[in-house]
Specification:
109 residues, mainly beta, five-stranded mixed beta barrel, 1 helix, 5 strands, 4% helix, 58% strand, globular
Length: 109
């Protein structure tokens, strides 16, 4: 199994989606992050979709606001849509950095 760790920021806020996985309806939090990457490198930023389908996805989604810094651990997955290969991360663990605040509690950064 592959393991991916990304330190990044949310660029597209989280949204909740119901998906059917093996005949069972699951709630999935879907959002996009930009990898902060290695400091002082002249690399193109990596933008990637993240799917989080654990029990806490409903609760987590309100914290996934634009600019929120995260540490994500999961696995890199591939799916095909409209004839294109789409890579995404299926997150196992998400750590909110540096503060744990809801968007309506003030600045989420």
């Amino acid at each position: 199994m592959n393991t991916v760790i990304i330190h990044g920021k949310v660029v597209q806020p989280g949204k909740m989606v119901m998906v059917n996985i093996k005949g069972i309806e699951n709630t999935v939090a879907i959002f996009t992050v930009v990898d902060i990457g290695t400091p002082n490198k002249d690399e193109e930023p990596l933008f990637i979709q993240v799917n989080y389908r654990k029990f806490s996805a409903d609760n987590l989604c309100k914290y996934l606001v634009k600019g929120k810094e995260l540490l994500i651990t999961g696995s890199l997955k591939l799916r095909y849509a409209a004839g294109k290969q789409i890579y995404f991360i299926e997150a196992d663990e998400i750590v909110l950095l540096p503060l744990f605040k809801a968007a309506n509690e003030g600045d989420a950064n």
